[in-house]
Amino acid sequence: MNNPFNRPIYFDNNATTACSEEVFEAMKPYACERYGNPSSIHSFGGSVMPEIEKARWSIARLLGCTNADPNGHCTEVIFTSCGTESDNTAIRSALEINPARRKLVISKVEHPAVLNPAHELARQGYQVVEVPVDSKGRLDMAYLADAVDHDTALVSIMWANNETGNIYPVEEIAAIAHRFGALFHTDAVQAVGKIPMNMSESQIDMLSLSGHKLHAPKGVGALFVRRGVRFRPFMIGGHQERSRRGGTENVLGIIALGKAAEQAARSIAEENDYVKSLRDRLEQGILKSIPKIRINGDPDHRLPNTSLISFEFIEGESILMLLDQYGICASSGSACTTGSLEPSHVLRAMGVPYTAAHGAIRFSLSRYNTREEVDFLLEVLPPVIEKLRSYSPYWQE
Ligand SMILES: *Cc1c(COP(=O)(O)O)cnc(C)c1O
Questions:
Q1: What is the DSSP string of 277-337?
Q2: What CATH number corresponds to the domain at position 105?
Q3: Which positions of the chain have pLDDT values less than 50?
Q4: Owning domain of residue 330
Q5: Exposed/middle/buried for 393, CB within 10 Å: 0-12, 13-18, 19+?
Q6: Whole-prediction pTM value?
Q7: d(CA 225, CA 205)
Q8: Which atom of ligand 1 is nearest to the CA of 87?
Q9: Ligand 1, atom 15: nearest CA belongs to which residue?
Q10: Pocket of ligand 1 (CB under 6 A)
Q11: pLDDT (tens digit, 9 = 90+) per residue, 285-300?
């Protein structure tokens, strides 16, 4: 690795995160020792069930839910296989419990896990409204309020955007949805563990989260469904998850997610301060040393870990390739659009000019990054940009 640390310098935490050591240790025994099926009658398997319930409580605590049924079960959290499954489940369920309503309101900057199911539903005859954003990626709230009506089954708006880090006014949007008897779901995959939450005093009906975005492994997620909100399962099979999600539980993933939630709940404020100080150092350093850049997104409502920076007149992919030689990992637009040379749907929705949209790099940090890593980036990045610009036909000093 061509850097002084001899390991990757990982600034791509909105794509996925490292599994924490504490989380990995917690899940280990469930692979080869406590491998029983939690639904079994025998105690070898059955004794795993209380551990799943503990994990459920850890997530409930992180989300700030206090509702429990009289048996002490937290029934508001359903385990799934990923954020994508949670999003799909929420959308399907909302439409199925209210078949008379044929409209879905989302935003233009949703993750593909919401955007693409919505497009599929539009092909099936549902009316889908995509609320636009302004040049800073802020939602057009008047447009949204106008779009929601008595035909609307669901409003689904993400809590925080994976590309810009923008944070959306989810409580305000939930209130608008409820005025017309529609449900409100939020894709909170980027928000959980970064934004303190209090579901017990919230109007949000459903919320999606994913393990691998908060230092648990890939392949586990959860869907919060508020008590009293009607629900239809997406995965139909055995009676797992109170018949709300069939399929033998991903025990390792669930235990891991519970531990990751515990860790996040313990350190959310402190971690945010630390990560924000690194992100701000990175942005200030780049602003000082590199001309013709723009920081995309809403500076007043942004996740503390995310920075989406446009380096004008060059291609983001070329920057990533040169940074890769130093073991520096970042992203251009969203991981899902990498491979195509189209700017991401988020930058297009924001109307970012062509020359800036193509040179956009997302740096997304975590608690495992250090000041030294940021300083190393600030050392190698200016010459990388200068070199690429010297080849660019569009670039003039
Ligand atoms: C990563 C991500 C998802 C998808 O989660 P998976 O667990 O990878 O399916 C959904 N929404 C947002 C905002 C994300 O960042």
A1: HHHHHHHHHHHHH-SSEEEES-TTSB-TTEEEEEETTS-HHHHHHHHHTTTEE-BSS-GGG
A2: 3.40.640.10
A3: 334-337
A4: 9-19+267-390
A5: exposed
A6: 0.96
A7: 6
A8: 10
A9: 162
A10: 14, 82-84, 111, 113, 158, 162, 187, 189-190, 210, 212-213, 221
A11: 999 999 999 999 999 9
